[in-house]
Predict the structure.
Amino acid sequence: MSYCKQEGKDRIIFVTKEDHEAPSNAELIEDDPNDPYEDHGLILPNGDINWNCPCLGGMASGPCGQQFKDAFSCFHYSKEEVKGSDCVENFRSMQECMQKYPELYPQEDDNDSAPSGGADNAPSDSVPTSSPESTPATTENPAAS
Amino acid sequence: MFKCKTVWNKLAPLARASSTLCLQNARKSALRHGRRLEMVQKAQMSSGPAGGGGENTLYYVLIGATCLGAGVYAYRTVSEDKDRYNERMTEIVSRPKQGPQAAEAVAEVVAESKEEPVAEEPTLTEADVESTESEPIAEAPVTKPIVEEPVTEPTVQASIPEPTVESPIREPVVEASVIEPVAEAPAVTQNEEPLAPVVESETEPTAVIIAEHVPEASSVSESAAVPKAAPAAEPVEPTAAPSDVPEHAPYLLIGGGTASFAAARSIRARDPGARVLIVTEESDLPYMRPPLSKELWFSDDPKAIETLHFKQWNGKERSIYFQPPSFYVSPADLAKVENGGVAVLTGRKVVHMDVRGNKVKLSDGAEISYEKCLIATGGVPRNLQVIERAGEEVMKRTTLFRKIEDFRSLEKISGEVKSIIIIGGGFLGSELACALGRRSTDVGLEVIQMFPEKGNMGKVLPEYLSNWTTEKVRKEGVSVITDAVVKNVTYKNDKLEIKLKDGRLFKTDHIVAAVGLEPSVDLAKSAGLEVDSDFGGYRVNAELQACSNIWVAGDAACFYDIKLGRRRVEHHDHAVVSGRLAGENMTGASKPYWHQSMFWSDLGPDVGYEAIGIVDSSLPTVGVFAKATAKDTPKAATEQSGTGIRSESETEAVAGALKAKTTATPPPIQQKEDYGKGVIFYLRDQVVVGIVLWNVFNRMPIARKIIKDGEQHADLNEVAKLFNIHED
């Protein structure tokens, strides 16, 4: 049983679960996928990688940022059957760089495995300890396990 | 010094003689005049003193001759000395070159130069002598005003002697003062020899010659201060010599807070190899503020105060610093490091901005030129006038809370005093009150919060919610005094006495003033930037740009929001969003402020909300509420998302913890209140401009969408359905 009360300029409505069961008839405007102003996720509409995605944390901007970008770009555009198999060199130099900064890129056991399954898992290998970013709706792993 | 004495000795008898003569003459003429005046006053008026006739003329001739003679004598003495000096120098040069001897010779020369009749210089030159043999750093305070430029610029040396040249007599002194910066400069090689010829050349009184030999001077400068290490160019050391300040930074970020760091990251992501320099007044590397008034107070770890690590509800630990020191490059290396990087120059304030010349000046005089500049200076906490006027004793016992040191100091004080009063009922005041209230039972601390509004968050939440919130804060152990306007504050009997306008009196040991933030716009004048009169802060356009190469982000930016109009926002997420946007625009993106930032607050474990847009309690609101269950608490929200920084909950997947420590399971929450969870819409001209999600979490994207649409909705209950408030 929903009811409503008014306190001055403020209106208060109490609703039960049943009241909200019927789907909403509020109209929302269609999102334009090509809106130039909108923030994008990891992959831009034209297929490029969005290095500024909060999901990457500080990976593309840190001391090993260049190596990371090279390795990840190679992986992204790789047309091999096993995606990224032609990028071993890039990943190795990225590894070497990261080993120089153990504080930033904590070395984990699963470090050696190349990012599998695409962008989302990339940051899970070794990531800076903290990175506050806000939020297009993509995943971010600020702390390594 | 000896020279001075001998000269004086020679001159003294002369001086004495002439002075006695003068005196005698004066007395005589005075007596005569006196008599004359008595006798013939009126007639002599116009030609009074000169009307004495013959005796006076003689008197003046005598004085004149004496002075002339003294002058001639002095000049002769001095030029003789100078010739002798020059001879000496040539002699030194012609000697076989041996390192230590040359240095000694220099020392001797410098010592001789002290004999000039300028008594104050000796202390300075003595210091110089020592500097060639001992730490340049110790000398730094003495010679600071003279050394203005980083020594890497040879041409700079020429300008240094100028301020110290005050009279023609001072050539040796000039040379000595040039030795100072020479001595101070970072040492590279062990070669002391070349010092001698340089010194010799510099004794020429003409500035031209000094300029010619300056390049030598600079190379010598590299070697002179050898034995003592160059001032360590560490990014975190605020007292390092100017040599660690780079002269040019392609991207210069003024201010080292959240907005600045977000911009640095954005720039580095978009411009490969970018070299970014952050200049901050603080001595800390960039850090985030929310935990200073929230998580850090609830930490079980006694070392948390030192390490500034905080453990979140689910055991995940993180530091308030955005990145550890190893992330950053040192400012001195910034220009050389291969792939660029971010350098932080701590402990420096930018005091002047030259927009036409594209450069800034620091408090220590160093200048940095830039190509793109971001101003992210944030602000300073406001204070109450009554406290400022109350005197030293009251000010000593007042905390204006903003930085890490304020947190550490307040944390320490909270363990020492018996009573704390917080003035201010907004976000910071309420959060601190709750944090201190939590401690109050443990340590026997009385916590009082007072503010002019009717309830906590009175300017943000509609009245019914504000009242409800106030009750919650009281339950946290805080004594909340509403409708309280402070009239005056005095220090009496080792207690602070706060008197309110309505007559109530409160006694306490310490005050925390959380009454707002004053945006720092010190550079507006020198940079010629506009300051907004309504909201304060630098006025910028929708792309956060103030003028061609200057952007402003964070608390200090009054920007144009295409959807919501001109505003200035003082929240963490806004700093991140605007910093990112500014960084993007500095690398050519030309995007306006579009992604709405959000904010959040937790008042204890039971009350938490997220909000977005313009959330002003003076706007008409429509609130849609459901009954809450035990699952609807901030604690549950953080456990689900794994983060206490709720702006990140949208992008966070639980990846693990640094060191997972076991946490006690929270006790079950009983929610009997009416306003358990819901959505509140803030309307302006029938359009939703702000939304508060009350104990409803992880729904921010929907809220953001509604504000972005900017539509007039006939029935907001229908809109509320989109949030599924009854679900988790």
Q: What stands out?
A: Chain B has 24 helices and 28 strands. The mean pLDDT of chain B is 76. The radius of gyration of chain B is 36 Å. Chain B touches chain A through 82 residues (CB under 8 Å).
